[in-house]
Each structure stands twice: as structure tokens, then as C-alpha cells.
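User: I've been going back and forth on whether these two constructs are worth ordering. Before I decide, could you fold them both?

Assistant: Sure. I'll take them in the order you sent them. The first construct and its C-alpha cells:
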Amino acid sequence: MPSNAILETRVLTKRFPGVTALDGVSFYLRPGEVHGLCGENGAGKSTLIKTLSGIHPHGSYEGEILVEGNEARFTGIAEAQAAGIAVIYQELALVNNLTVAENIFLGNEPTRLGLIDWDKVYTDAAKLLKRFKLDIDPAARVGDLGTGLQQLVEIVKALAKKSRILILDEPTAALTEAEVDVLLEIIRGLRDEGVAAIYISHKLDEVFAISDRITVLRDGKSIVTLESAQTNAGEVIRHMVGRPIEDLFPKRQSKPGGTLLSVKNLTVADRHGDTILHDISFEVRAGEVLGIGGLMGSGRSETLMHIFGAWGERLNGDVQMSGKPSPIQNPRKAISEGLVMVTEDRKRYGLNLDKSIGFNLSLSSLEQIGYGFIDRNTEVARNQKIFGLLRVKAPSIETVVGTLSGGNQQKVVIGKALLTGPNIVFLDEPTRGIDVGAKLEVYEFVNQLTGEGKAVVLVSSELPELMGMSDRIVMLAEGHVGGVFMREEATQERLLAAAIKFHKAPVKV
């Protein structure tokens, strides 16, 4: 390790009951360096952050943390912050009812004669925002800002404490492309000023765009540290998953059969009476993946949710399952008819985070394991089977779902859906917020479903994913069908052109 490392870990090990989350992690951070940290969900990234930031205090782990060559023995977050370490989490820690300036200096307010100097709070906040070229009113209420601007305020808040080490955990997950560009430019400016940063992201293009070096974690171990300029995404992925990745999208062997779902001229209004979906038509066959793409607000999720019985008032159109009119009026009826949906928001709609894996797996199929009472033996046996099949990284099915990584939570949501015994599976952004290894497993599950003769409808905002996994692709544009493409004729340019077909204003591509 170099003598000028601003932050260093030596053989850092952190154990929880039944699992070793960190297993001898060693790495170092140079002053003025952006260090990418990559790894699958469950690789140990979150535990490492919590250990470096004092959430897991000294004495709860083995090994050493050094700041500027001296061992740090943090007993809490405040001590880590005092040492110059700030963490910007994906889950923002802002107070919506306070102003931007109040949030920036919360707990760190300048005082005068024992009282908060409010003039200085707002003046200094304005200077900080101007320094980073952010056009944000310091007097604006944080709750009135978009998620992207809130993320940028969170970073300014950390810098107001004169932090020398920034740890950014999936900082662009909720940002637009323009906001991502702003964020990366801010980080580059901080690097020039000598601030060091650990940048954690599943988006390897961002990691390569901003990082000087990249460390890969796998199964709690630090596998390798690479110079960004001397490696590539393929090598990083290989180290992350522990095997060569010849093709990110595994080939499917199934041949499409008869039509399982047919949608014709579907027109749907929201609860305010505004028409959101206009004359949507498509069909899905057994053993086939139909991809649905489009820009934000195009109606992708609304289409799936309406057919599933969870949203909207049908004004016109016909939905048939296996050639018969669909009687679906609510999700419970949909599941009984062999249609299941994996929601894009697993934490809000897909899981009870305070309950066990087994509890969550059973939620959508309780009627299959008892009438009036639950056959506990049957429940445990089938939950244990799907738990093993999906390779969920957890000590047991009694593990609380909220303690799992994002990728493993997603496996539980998919497992819950599969236990309903569906013929048609709706997957709405099934790989959002999970790493490349977990994505590969999701893709393998999709191929398994189609191999069993099931029909899959896949909504994704990632064009390469749509092109790699779909047999046919329907692109939606402002609630209309902008185009339908066979897999072999789909290109990113053609798909994007179909997605903006109904836009009246020019769109920057």
C-alpha cells in the first residue's frame, strides 16, 4: 500500500449470524482519486460502506481501517464524519419540509452569539450551489424538488462539512441523463481539488467514465484492483461473476406456440378521466418473450397494470387469454386465471420488507396451500424448493427480506410470482437496480419460463436488454404503439425513433 493513501482497509472482515459479509477486504484510496467499487448484489459493498462510515463500529469487525496512515476506530457516524468521510446513499437523507439551505447545514448550522445565523446559512448555501453551477434556489423547499436535484443537494450537503472522502452509493439511480452529466462533472471538479471518492454503481459505463481505478468485490472478498484505462467492461464483469461472459443474453431454445394473450385496440383512462392508452394491440405466444419499450410516460407499466386488473378504466378494446375473453377485474382474479405480474417497484408493491423470505414467497399463492388454514409442511417444502432453485443468498427462508441485497430481493419477488403457477408472466423492469450477475440469473429464469411454454411480457427501459431478450418488441410512444419489430430487425436507432414518434417537440438523441 502506498504511504500517501488517504483511506485504507487491511484484511477487513465482518460477520453476521450465518454469513461472512466481508472476508478479508483490502484496498486503498489515493487523495484526489475516484475509485470505482463494483460487485454483484450481496458481494459486500453495502457492508463495506457501513463499516467505513461508522455504522458498524470498531469492535464489531476484524482488520483495520486507516485514515491518512492512522488507524481509525469509529464508534459511530459522527466520528467518521469528523474524520472527513461522507456517504451519499441511494436512499436520500433529506428533510422534505425544510429548505435547501436548511438541509445543507442541518446539524452544522453557523451561529452568532449563540443563535443560528440564518443570513449566513442562506448566503453560504448560495455560494456552495453557485460553486457547483447548480441553479437551485436555496430557499426552495426540498420536497418540491425532483429526485435528481435532491440527489445533488445531498452531495452539496456532504461537501458543506468539508469532507475529504466521498462515498457515493448508486448516486445516479434516479437521475436523468442530463443530471448524470452534471453529477459526473461535479465529481471531476472535486477530484481536481484533491477530494477522494469511492464510486459505487451497477452502471459500468459511468464507472469507466469517472474512475481512475476499479476494485471488484465478490462473495465478500476483494478480488482485484484494476487501472480503469488498462481494462474493459468484459474483464470487470468476469471478475464480478467469477466466470467468462461470452454473451450477456443467453440464447433461448424454445419455439413459440399458440397465442396465450391477445390485446386489441385497448384504450384506457386514468382515475381523472384522462385517456392514457390509445388503441394498444399486441399478442404473446407460448414460449415467447414480447418486449415492451418506450420513454418515461409512454404507458409501458400502465399497459401491464391494466391487463393485470390493477389500474385504469377501459374505454374500449378487447383482451383475450388462450382465445377466450379475459374476465380479469383485479390482480387476485388475474392470478387465478394464470397471469402474474412482477412489479417494477419491489419495495413498495412486491415485498413486505419486515417479513421473512418464506412469508413473502407464499403471499400470492396462499389458496394453493390450504383452505381456511395453511398447510405449513406443504408451504415450507415448496418455499424451500424455489429458494434453492433461485439461489437466493441468505442463511434460510426465515431471513427477513429487508436485510437482503437488491438482487436477492428481486429473486424473492420472482419466486413469489412463479409459485402461483402462471401461464403468462409480466416482468416490469425486472433488472432495475441489480448487478450484472443477478441480471444474468433473471435472464436464465426468463429462458426457463419460455422453455416450459409460458408467455413472457418484458418491460425494460434498457434497449440492449429488449433487443437481447425479446422475440418481438412493441415500442410505445405517449400511449400509442409507435412500432413493432422482430428481433432480427431491431436496432437501437429504429427503436428510439419509434419511441419518440408522437413527440411534437424535437428530442435530443
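The second construct, handled the same way:
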Amino acid sequence: MIAWGLASSGHPILVHLIPTRRCNLSCAYCNEYDDFSKPVPLEEMYRRIDHLAELGAAIMTQSGGEPLLHPQLDQIIARVRSHGALAGMITNGYLLTADRIQQLNRAGLDHLQISIDNSQPDEISKKSMKVLDQKLVLLAEHAEFQVNINSVLGSGVKNPEDALAVARRALALGFTSTVGVLHDGNGQLKPLNTREQAIFDQVMELGKRSYSRFNQFQHNIARGRENQWRCRSGARYLYVCEDGLVHWCSQQRGYPGTPLAQYTKEDLRREYRTEKSCAPRCTVSCVQQVSMLDNWRNPQTLQPRMAGPQQSDSLIQLSSSPRGK
């Protein structure tokens, strides 16, 4: 994937697909869910996956909402793998059982990520180590795919030390570990305090054997420093919402706001060269990781187009979510 990404800048590296906006939890910090939406029909998911494959997408990750609520998630994952793309998933982990993990193995899942917010559930988040530890044990026993556990620091986290406990437990079970810095309501950075920064450094050191060692931009985010980089969202990274619209990312819904079915390689080329004013203070780590492949080439000389007719004329800012998106 990396070699192909370096050799060619004309295809998406990572796509986040939303098969359902519904979630079985209601974490107070998150507005990327509801409790009533129906899952995207399977045939429509197939059409979206097939079109992304035509665009050359290398990784397609199911997110949400809670993707495990989609009754045909296994077929969706298998469809991704049928195109030779890598299949990932971001989940809260609540619905995992031994049988469900085996089904994901058979479907061909390559990578799964769970964000764990604290040691004990509270009024902000139910994604706690107390609740999820047995799910992690099941993953360690049965999963044939890579598992990454993401801990979080920043606004809303009562006990920063919990991030260190989560990371240590993840590594003890043989998983990789990353840490995310929660952003503000506009998806922009909010520096950690001195205590949180010290814990951040410890967690990053623990995770040095995983891809977290490449996250120099997160060290800047933790200290409130802007990053100078070329955001390639809309080109190398796509966020496809439950309505089938392409957005820069989960925090910048509205641009370009184009139906995926109408998204072309010309759209990829345009967004690749489009400068994003939100980039210097962005905290969306997956977009920054993908964009590292192209920071050294092709300056961005275009300004954003107006949002598509399906969205409002101005950029819609969403509030923060530490799901690792």
C-alpha cells in the first residue's frame, strides 16, 4: 500500500465508509451517530465499494455510528476484499463475541480499532476498560486480523492516567497501541496541559513499535503547535457518509459534498491540489498519516469550491470524536 501510494498520487489511500449512522451507545462528546437510522442497504454499499475500487482505493474502513449494527457487515467486508483492497473497521467493541470475531475472520477483515476512553464508565463515555476488557481477551484469543487499541487524552477526559493503563493493557494482550488527542468542537487542536503531555509522551513511547512512531504531528498537537502540511483529504483520504456523499473528513462535512457515484478522478485531482484552511490546527490523525505520503510533492494552489447542492453553502463543522478518525 505504501509503495503504491508513493509511486502514484492519483488514487485514494484510505476511505472511511459509514454503513449505518445508528449507534448502541450515546457518548456525550460524539455527534457522529443517532439511535434510529436504518442501515445502508447492502446493494447500495456494494455500489459504493465497487466505485471506490474503480477509483483505486487501497483501504476501505467501516466506521459509524457502530458498524457492527449493520446486519450484513460481513458481506460488506468481503466485497472490499474481493477488490483486493484492505478492509478495516472502527468499532466500540460492545457487540463482539467469539462467534462474531470468527465471522469477521472469515469475511477477511484486516484491521480493527477500538478507542477506550477511561478505566471506569462515566456520564461522558461508556467505552471503558472495565466494560471492554473481556472483549479484548476474546480478540486476543480469536482474531486473525490486526487489532489496535486507541486511548485518548484531552477535553472531557477526567483521569489522564487511564490512557496509560489502556495502552499497557493493549500491549500486554499483543495488540498495537495509539493515543489520540481530543480536539475542540471544530475539529481543531486544543493543547494538553502539563500532566496530560507527560502521559501522552509515555503512551507514545509504549507504542513505538507500531505506526504511532510516525505521528510527529501529534507531538505538536499535544503542545498546541500548528502543523505545516498539505492535507490531501478529498483525494488521498475520503469520508463517505451514510448518505453516500464525499466529505473531506468527519469534522468537515459539507466539502465537497459530492455524491460518491458522481465522484471522478478529476475530483480527486482537484481536491489533491486544494488547500484546506483548517489543516494547520487539524487533529484528525488518519488524514495526517495518509497525507505524509505526499507532503513532499505537489504544492496546493487551488481554493475550495462551494459545497455541493446536497449540502449547505458553507462548511459544516462537527464536534469532536475520539474514534480515531
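Notes on the second construct follow. The two ends are 19 Å apart (CA to CA). Residues 309-325 have pLDDT under 50 and may be disordered.
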